[in-house]
């Protein structure tokens, strides 16, 4: 029981940090960005925290510049991929910028 | 007072450890701010993300009959003896303990959308402010004569809902003689998991090639041709299973005989098999049909794609395989997971009084094993198009594998581990 509650408390703590105080006033833009980032979570983990050892890249805490450059590399073909070059072409530059900033802010 | 009594009672009975360490999960609540019906890829994700996106400020109750989540994706590997049931089974403890979702193991038998209540098989009623239905599919057994009875007797399996039939089909293959025939009947689209039948045929062929090489795989497809990743599957079959796997398009099953494992078609001669695997046509989950939400030909549920609210009932959102799909939108676990996040964000925005997202996005990535070690994928990105009020694929995005390859077998399992964690963990 103690473990369950401790994990719960940690999760709530991370959420408050991650959103800069959701309970005190989440903005629509923050909510929409988080939902956009959730389209990456299937393979890269909730909020970019990939399952350790799964083989998927962790996005949480990577620098914004690195994420943007990797994604642009997939898009223009300078970086080889099996599937990411197909997926990244579904996102605008503005969306990529928002995604990269969001994942960079996660721990 | 009641809750304290309950906790003390549980402690006295030593039952606390078995309920995941959260006393609030034991009873059936009388009311939920958000009530989710169905704990598959759509419903479990919706429950988690309403909690996550609201900073845990909106209470969520999830009603799911099964004790554990059993994944349809990867289940074909269990049928082929490559993986075991434990590998595709996850618990709901993460939703309970990490996200504070109240999970009730019961079945919803009726919905009163006017009074905003549901009734459980166990007898209790739960009220709600917002209802999310993710009931998966109902197999229409009676569209194929004799199938309901043959399935009930365990003679002819579908194994199209991961669970007991998944393991049972593997055991039928294990018991089959070398030189036997495995026949698979595929329904007309739309059905759950477009590439799923072709993956199954491939994996069963791989199993037979290794263990019972004189056997045959016969694939009878009601469709005009392979409905997903066609060239990739056909090349794999020609390269890996020549003389073992035969594909026959435009074979629509109309009847079966369970005792003799005979499959009858609308036009062609009947076929006998040693293991007969019939996937019948399907529609929205039974509760959605019963509640009057299946307003697309009586089979699927039309939704407003901005928030997945039913067009038949206000305050009721429908996710996943039960929905009438937008163009090029597959009925897949990945898609249900993505739809759930769009719906969860819209519901959180509504409850919190925030502006709704007018340009939601969805992705789909689907890996299919063509052998135990080689995989092909199809991927797509979908954007909401306001003028047409639907999702469409983003021009220039998406695609399939250039060729089957071993690298993506690793990525397929990475996908599985991450989507299971994203849905339930």
In a nutshell, what does this entry contain?
Chain A is an all-alpha fold and 107 residues long. Helix content of chain A is 59%, strand content 0%. Chain B is built from eleven helices and 24 strands.
N-to-C order of helices and strands of chain A: HHHHHH
CATH overall fold name of chain A: Cytochrome Bc1 Complex, Chain D, domain 2
Question: Would you tell me the overall average pLDDT of chain A?
Answer: 84
Q: What low-confidence regions of chain A span 5 or more consecutive residues with pLDDT below 50?
A: 1-24
How many β-strand runs of chain A? 0
Helix share, percent of chain B: 25-40%
Give the CATH level 1 class of the largest domain in chain B: Alpha Beta
Strand segment tally of chain B: 24
Rg from Cα of chain A:
15 Å
Task: Tell the overall outline of chain A.
Answer: globular
CATH superfamily of chain A: Cytochrome c-like domain
What's the total helix number of chain A?
6
Report the largest inter-chain contact.
A-B, 45 and 63 residues
Sheet-strand content of chain A, in percent, reads under 5%
CATH superfamily membership of the largest domain in chain B, which one?
Answer: FAD/NAD(P)-binding domain
* CATH fold topology of the largest domain in chain B: FAD/NAD(P)-binding domain
Q: Helix coverage percent of residues of chain A? A: 55-70%
Per CATH, which architecture of chain A?
A: Orthogonal Bundle
Q: What best-fitting shape of chain B do the alpha-carbon axes yield?
A: globular
As residue ranges, the low-confidence spans of chain B are 1-26
Features:
heterodimer, A: 107 residues, mainly alpha, Cytochrome Bc1 Complex, Chain D, domain 2, 6 helices, disordered N terminus, B: 425 residues, alpha/beta, FAD/NAD(P)-binding domain, 2 domains, seven-stranded mixed beta sheet, four-stranded parallel beta sheet
């Amino acid at each position: 029981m103690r473990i369950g509650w401790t994990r719960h408390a940690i999760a709530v703590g991370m959420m408050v940090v991650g959103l800069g105080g959701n309970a005190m006033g989440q903005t629509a833009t923050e909510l929409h960005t988080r939902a956009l980032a959730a389209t990456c979570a299937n393979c890269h983990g909730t909020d970019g925290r990939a399952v350790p050892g799964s083989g998927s890249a962790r996005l949480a805490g990577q620098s914004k510049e690195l994420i943007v450059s990797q994604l642009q590399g997939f898009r223009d073909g300078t970086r080889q991929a099996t599937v990411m070059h197909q997926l990244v072409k579904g996102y605008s530059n503005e969306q990529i910028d928002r995604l990269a900033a969001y994942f960079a802010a996660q721990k | 007072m009641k809750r304290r009594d309950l906790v003390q009672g549980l402690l006295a009975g030593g039952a606390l450890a078995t309920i995941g360490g959260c006393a609030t999960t034991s009873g059936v609540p009388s009311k939920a701010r958000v009530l989710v019906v169905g704990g598959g890829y759509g419903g479990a994700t919706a429950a988690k993300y309403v909690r996550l996106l609201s900073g845990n400020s909106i209470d969520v109750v999830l009603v799911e009959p099964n004790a554990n989540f059993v994944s349809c994706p990867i289940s074909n590997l269990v049928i082929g003896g490559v993986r075991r049931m434990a590998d595709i089974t996850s618990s709901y403890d993460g939703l309970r303990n990490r996200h504070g979702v109240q999970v009730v193991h019961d079945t919803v038998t009726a919905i009163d959308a006017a009074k905003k209540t549901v009734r459980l098989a166990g007898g209790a009623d739960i009220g709600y402010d917002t209802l999310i239905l993710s009931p998966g599919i109902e197999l229409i057994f009676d569209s194929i004569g004799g199938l309901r009875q043959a399935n009930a007797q365990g003679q002819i399996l579908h194994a199209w809902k991961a669970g007991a039939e998944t393991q049972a089909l593997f055991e039928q293959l294990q018991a089959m003689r070398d030189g036997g025939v495995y026949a698979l009947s595929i329904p007309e689209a739309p059905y759950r998991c477009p590439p799923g039948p072709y993956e199954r045929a491939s994996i069963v062929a791989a199993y037979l090639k290794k263990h019972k090489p004189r056997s045959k795989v016969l694939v009878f497809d009601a469709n005009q041709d392979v409905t997903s990743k066609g060239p990739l599957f056909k090349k794999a079959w020609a390269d890996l299973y020549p003389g073992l796997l035969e594909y026959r398009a435009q074979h629509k099953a109309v009847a079966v005989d369970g005792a003799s494992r005979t499959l009858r078609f609308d036009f062609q001669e009947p076929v006998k098999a040693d293991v007969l695997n019939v996937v019948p046509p399907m529609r929205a989950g039974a509760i959605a049909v019963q509640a009057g939400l299946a307003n697309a030909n009586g089979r699927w549920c039309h939704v407003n794609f901005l928030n997945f609210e039913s067009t038949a009932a206000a305050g009721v959102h429908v996710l996943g395989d039960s929905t009438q799909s937008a163009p090029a939108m597959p009925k897949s676990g990945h898609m249900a997971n993505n739809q759930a996040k769009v719906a969860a964000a819209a519901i959180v925005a509504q409850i919190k009084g925030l502006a709704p997202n007018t340009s939601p996005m969805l992705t789909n990535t689907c890996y299919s094993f063509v052998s135990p070690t080689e995989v092909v994928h199809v991927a797509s990105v979908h954007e909401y198009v306001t003028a047409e009020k639907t999702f469409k694929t983003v021009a220039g995005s998406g695609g399939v594998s250039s060729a089957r390859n071993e690298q993506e077998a690793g990525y397929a399992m990475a996908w599985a581990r991450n989507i299971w964690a994203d849905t339930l963990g």
